[in-house]
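**Folding the chain**
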Amino acid sequence: MPSFSSRFQAGSFAVAAALVFAASFSTRQSVCQTPAVDLHPRAVAHISGHVLMTTLRPVQPGDQQRADAVVAAAREAMEPYRDYRNALADGYEIFLPNVPQPQYHFTKREYGREARWTFDPLKPTSLIYKKTAGGYTLVGAMYTDRVTASQDELNERIPLSIARWHQHVNFCEAPAGEWTDYFGPNAKFGLVGSIHTREDCDAAGGTFIPHVFGWMVHVYPYETDAKKIWSVDDDDQGHDNMDHSAMPGMKMN
């Protein structure tokens, strides 16, 4: 099967991704505000089959200190990019800039490639911004790892007793002409669709993509509340972590 990156560049998945995000967030508000999540309860239930979370581990000696060191490094790495234009000038690209989202990821592909094999907290794969009337406000960073990384490896990077990594999984791309089935309470395709398996996707004439990107984790170093630094809750501060979502045996919250 072609890699996700090649499919994305080909354009077909870009359309699907845009539709998923557009369906997930209300466009009734101005795009200069944080859009409210406007999902039908049935769609929320479907999300659970599309997000894989790491298991929360018991706290071990030194875990908090290791996590705090990553937060400090993330804050240092982010500081030059409080002005979003500096990020753009330095090679960061906005993911789906024209789709209303609670957060916008400015991603540096070079850092994403490096993160597949090494972890440098001074090189976050993405910077996370909230859109404002005058541009963007920097709120956080995202670290990534390859899709095949074990939870033990993720724990070596950032303690799993402190942070929860996630993957977006089980994406069924709709056949041509069936884009409307990304939307609404009876959505079948995409990251809020009812289809979670290759068999059901094949039966519906779709294209099954087991993993969308790899492992990822968000950090919000400017938060003063320790619980929000590695937040796994959607809230009025724009944290976007799919707290509705879990895989069997990996309960959220």
About this structure: The first strand starts at residue 51 and ends at 53. Residues 63-78 form the longest helix (16 residues).
